[in-house]
Amino acid sequence: MSVSAKTVTGERADLLETLGKHRFFLRYTAQGLSDEQAAATPTASALSVGGLVKHVTAMEKQWMGFAVGGAAGMGADDNGEVDWADGFKMTAGETVEGLLKAYEEVARHTDGLLTTLDLDAAHPLPEAPWFEPGARWSVRRVALHLIAETSQHAGHADIIRETIDGQRTMG
């Protein structure tokens, strides 16, 4: 069931609205860029607007996989690895239009899941040095993490975009 087909209220509506707002900021920042501009890294960072859209798309997909199926649902390859190096940059053949379309599809899927999943359902986090051993995250915590990551990277993208052509998301 799509979010538009079901009236969402309360906490779910707040989570979806906030996530949607920060997704908008990221998409708006990428709007109107050529593929070359979207791939550009004009700041001291190695980040690009297109690479950030790509990363946020993958991150959202992985975390919603976790929300549904735990660590096994995060979409690692057969060796349990995720391609972090290319996950932050546009690679040959990728376009800003294609990256934004993929982001839209993942967002639609996420919104559907956040409309229906039990926000209190929790899974153990995968073993990693940045997670507390034995910690568990609920679907609610995953949604909050998506909001934080999307917001942070929308800000990164805004700085990069302003460096490229002076456009700012706000102000």
Structure commentary:
The protein has 171 residues and is mostly helical. The protein contains five helices and two strands. It has helices spanning 10-30, 35-39, 49-69, 96-116, 139-165; strands spanning 122-124, 136-138. It has a two-stranded antiparallel ribbon with strand order 1-2. α1 (10-30) packs antiparallel against α4 (96-116), α1 runs parallel beside α5 and α3 runs antiparallel to α5 (139-165). The chain is globular, with a radius of gyration of 16 Å. The N and C termini lie far apart (37 Å).
Question: How is this fold's topology laid out?
Answer:
Blueprint: H1 10-30, H2 35-39, H3 49-69, H4 96-116, E1 122-124, E2 136-138, H5 139-165
Antiparallel strand pairs: 1-2
How is the biggest beta sheet arranged?
Answer: 2 strands, antiparallel
Strand content: under 5%
* Span between termini: 37 Å
Shape by Cα distribution? globular
What would you call the structural class?
mainly alpha
Number of DSSP strand runs: 2
Mean pLDDT: 91
Rg over CA atoms, rounded to whole Å, is 16 Å
Spans where pLDDT lies below 50 across 5 or more residues: none
Task: Tally the helices.
Answer: 5
Give, in order, the helices and strands.
HHHHEEH
Provide keyphrases for this structure:
171 residues, mainly alpha, two-stranded antiparallel ribbon, 5 helices, globular
